[in-house]
Design a protein that fits this description.
mainly alpha, Methane Monooxygenase Hydroxylase, Chain G, domain 1, two-stranded antiparallel ribbon, 32 helices, 2 strands, about 70% helix, flat, protein transport, membrane, COG4_M, COG4_C, transport
Length: about 850
Amino acid sequence: MDSSPTPPSPSRSPVPLNPRQLTSPQQIGTQLALLTKRQAELSLSLNALVADREDIDDSLEHLTILGQHVERLVQEVDGGSRSTHGQPRGLGFQPNGHDMYEEEDEGLVERVRKVWETSERVGGKVRRLDVEVGRVKESVDIVSEVIDLKNSLVTLSLAIAKEDWESASRACRRAMSVRKQVIDGNFAGNVVPTSQYPLPPSQTLQELRDTLLQTFRREFDAAVTRKDQPGVSRFFRLWPAIGAEEEGLEVYGNFVVDLVKARNPTTGKASSPLYYLTSLTNLLESIAHIIDQHQPVVDKYYGPGRMVAVVGRLVGESDRVVRNLVEGWEEERRVGRLIGDTKSSSFLLLSNPSLFPPLFPSLLPSNANPITLATLANSTTSALPNLSSASHLLQSYTHGGRKSTPTQAPSSASSQAGGQQEHEQEGPDPRDVDKVLGELVALGGRWALFRRFIWSRIADEDEDESEKNGEKKEEKGELPEKKPYEVQMGILEQSGSQRAIENLLKVYYEPLEFWFLRMSIEKAHKIDTPDLTTQPHLSSILDDTFYLLKLVLSRLLSCGSLSTLKNMRRKVTEVLERDYTDAIRRKMDNVHSLAGGDRTERERREKDQREAFSIYLNDLDVSADYMERLVDETLQRIPQVFIEPEIVSVKDELEGFKDIGNRFKSVCKTGLEQLFNQLTRPRLRPILDDAYRDINYLLDDDAFQEAEEMDLVRKRFVKSWDSLILGYRGSFTEHNFQAFFSLAVEVLVRHWEKMILSMRFTELGAIRYERDIRSVANYLSAQTSFGGAREKFTRLQQIGTILNLDAEEDPQEFYSNSGVPWRISKVEYDSILEQRQ
C-alpha cells in the first residue's frame, strides 16, 4: 500500500539532477527546493501510514492473548503423560513456525509484514534524502567560503594600495580563516583568480601576506628610528592580526634589546667597591622595567605567556653584559690571588689542640713557651673588627637577656707579648676577604632578586593552565608534564648569566667563606676568655662564634643560590664539628691534664679546672639552643630570597644545620658524665656514710624518741649534699644542672639501696627509716623546679612500705593484690621481709 502522491510532470516541476553536475548557484538553489518538497511529501505519506496505529495495536493484543491460550493448552496436553523414550504425546501444538496460528490470524501477520516493509522503504528514502541534503549544504558552505575568500583578497589588495594597514590586516585575517582544503580546492582555483591576480588563491594570499609583513617591519623600524611611540604601538598590534605573532615578537625583541643597550653607562671607576654591583643592578633594573611596562601590552595582543620570548631576548643581552662584568671584576679584584693565599693558611692553632690557651692562668702548663703563647695572643683581632661587638649583637640569643662582658684579650695579650716581635699572619688579610665576600653576595643577591621577579610574572600566568593540564594527565593515567613556568624558567636557568653567577659563587665565594669562617673561629679560640659575672658562666667563644655563624648564614642565604647553599651547608657543618665542637672537647680533655704543685696551688687549680670544665659544658649546651633558634630565624627569610619551587629544598638544607645542635648535645652529655665521674661520683658514698654515722634502725621506744628529736640523717645529708652539689647551680646552665643533679640522685639512690639492704629493722626502726627517706626525698624535690627526684626514690620508699607491713597482714597476698606498681622483684621482696626483727 503506497499512499505517496504522484510526482508532478516535468513541465510543472524541474527535473532532479545529480549533485555532482551542479555548476551554478541557481541550479543548487533549485535542486535544494526540489529535495525539500520531496521530503515533505514523503513525510505526509509516512504519517498517513502510521495513523492507522489503533487497528494494528488491537490486532497485536488479540494475537498475544491467542498465543498465551495456545501455550497453556500445549502445557496441559503435553505435561500429562510422557513416552518411555522421552517423546511428547500431545496434540502436536508445539511451536513450529506459523503452525500454532489459525488461518484467521495469518492475515494479520501478513498485514504487519507489509507495514514493516513500507516503513523500511520510506525510511531508506528519507536517509538517502538526508545524505543528499548534507551534500547540498556542504556545497553551499564551500561556495560561501570561496566567495568570502575572493572578496577578502580583493579587499586586501585594495587596502594595501591605499596603505590602510588596519583594513588590510582584517581582510588578511578573514582570508586566512577559510579552510585550507577550500583554498586549495578546484572550485576556488577556478573562481577566485582574476586578471590582476591570476595565481591560485593560496599563492595570492601568501604574496599579499608577505607584503604586509615586509611593510609592517619597515614601518615599525622607521617608527623606532623616529622615536614615534604611537607608530611603534600601531604596527606592534598588527602582527597578531595576520597570525604573525612570532615575527612580531622577534622584531619587538630587537627593539627592547636596543633599549637596554641604550641605557646610560655606569659612572665611576672600576676600582670603586660599588662599580660592578651598580652596573649589574642598572642592567637588571632596566630589563625588569621593560618587562613590567610592556608585558600587559604583549599579553593583550599576543596572548598570555608570549612575553617569555621577549624575556629570552633580554636575557640574551644580559648574558653578554654579565660575562663582561664578571671578567672585569675578576681582573680588577685579583680574586685569584686571594684564593691562592687562602690555600697557604695552615691554621696552626686548630691543628694543634695543645696550643689552645686555657681559660685561667692557673691551668697554664709550667713549661709553656712564652713566645708561643705571646705569638698566639699577639695575632691581633683587628682583622676581625666585629668580634668585639659580638656579645652585644647576640643579646637576643642569651637566656633572660643577659649581657656578656666585652673580652679583655687584647690587653692581656699585650702583657704576655713582653715586647716580643709579632708573628706575621699567614694567608690573606681577612678585611680584604670580607670585602670580596660582601661584593659576591651582593652580586648573587641582585641576580636572585631578578629571578624572583621573572618567576612571579611567569608563574602567575601559567598557574591555572598547569593545573588543568595536570588534571587531564591524571585522568588519562599519564605522568604530568613539566609545568609551563618550569619550561619557561629554563630560559633563565640555562642562560649564560645564571651560569656566570653560579660559577662566581662556586669558584670564589665558597672557598673564601670557608676560609673566613675557619679563620674567625681560630681567632675566637685565641681570645677566648671566661665571664664569671653572669649566671650561668660562659666564655667569649660562644657569642663570637655564633655572631660569625649568623653572619655566614645571612650571607649564604642572601646569595640566593640553592646549589651554593647545599655545598656550603656541608662545609659549614664540617667546620663547626671539627673546629668548634671537637675543639671544645679537646679543651675539656686538657683541663685535667695538669698535676703537681703545693697544696694551695693544687686547690686553686682544682677550682679553676672545675670552673673551666663547667664553662665549656655551658658553651656546648647554649650552642645547641642558639643553633636551633638561629635556624628558625633564618627560615623566616627564605621567601624573601628564593622562588617558591625552591623553598622546600632550601628548608631541608637549613633544617640540616639542626643536626649540629644534636652534636653539641651529645658532646655536652659525654663531658657532663666525665665531670660527674671524676669529681662527684667518688664523693656520693661518703655522704651516706657520714649521714649514717652511728645510726641504725634497731630502735626501741627510747631510741626512737631520740632519733625523732635529733633527725640526724636528714641534717647530715643536707649539709654534705649542699656543699657538694649546689655549688654547681650558679655555674651550670639550667639544662646542665638538671642533668648533673639527676645523675647525682640516681647514683646516690643506688648506694643507699645497697646500704639499706644490709641493715636490720625493728618495727620502730622501719617507721624511722621511712620518715628519713621521705624527708630527704622532699628536700631534694624542693631544690629543683624540673622534678624527677622523688621518682628516683620509688624503690627506697617501697622498701619502707614492705618493712612497715602489719604483723597480721599476709605479705604474699599484699605483694600480689595490693595494686602497688612494684619496682622490686619478688626475690628482693622476700629478702626485705627477712630484714625485719
